[in-house]
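Title: Request for sanity check on Heptaprenyl diphosphate synthase component 1 prediction

Description:
We are preparing a figure and want to confirm that the structure record we downloaded matches what your pipeline produces today. Could someone re-run it with the sequence below and paste the raw structure tokens into this thread? We only need the token string, no images.
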Amino acid sequence: MKPYRVDQLTDKYIEYDMIQRHTDLPAQPDSRARLLAVFLERSSLQQNQEELYALSTSLVQMAMDTHDLIDVAKENRPESDMRSRQLKVLAGDYFSSRFYQLLAQAGQIDAISRLSEAVCEVNARKMSLYKAMTSSWMQAETYLREMVQLKMQLFLSFSSLMNDDDLRIWELLLEEFSRSETLAGELDAVGKPADSLFSYTRWIIMEQGSQEEQGKLAGGMMNQQEWDKLVAKYAVGHQIREQLQRSVDRIEVLVRDIHGSEGQAELLQAIRPYTVLLHASHSVVREG
């Protein structure tokens, strides 16, 4: 198993002083990229092709996630906010162009087609999810399942390249890594105001809260103090931590079931950010 370095290669394309000084970027899809690289290396690809595919997919994911962070509010904003928004637009476009350039230079036209089709699928699913959230009440688990599927789509486009013996466990692990990444992001954002439909915490409270609480949340009439009380009342952080722990546990079991030991250590390393987060969040709860 070659040393994993896709995260370092991705840094080359995303670490620019202008971006870091004036705006924030989403985290790299590191665990999914590691997973993709491991299973492609186990297949019969040409040398280093798995690294190219994992890097290109990471850049496409970064492009889409960066565009998702763009604030589309129309009211007048400070110059710093406008600059941040403009840089997110440009950065997302740049990441997308670099994935295309990397694959085109390597003659990987089929990979360009795979990822382009997957981008269309992701965008279609996002629109369907947004429509569903704005037109009706949504169960929290339905929201979580859809967010996990959105994280899986780009990486699923390479499933046909996997060894037949690896295909089932690859898809199961991709789902669990995508779930872990989604839950980790939701746990990090649990205390932030519910001003977005794209919030697992929001849908948990909408599902478990009283009619009065649901009405205030749906009507955008809830301040930060009221929000924090509901987060505590329904132990939202605890619920998310429990789900994240179960997902990490399933990954560990699945990794041990992989035929042969190739890549097992790399995949166990990929869950370390989630185990660290779980340990840190448990410590905060105990101290509180």
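Thanks, this matches our download. DSSP finds 14 helices and no strands in the chain.
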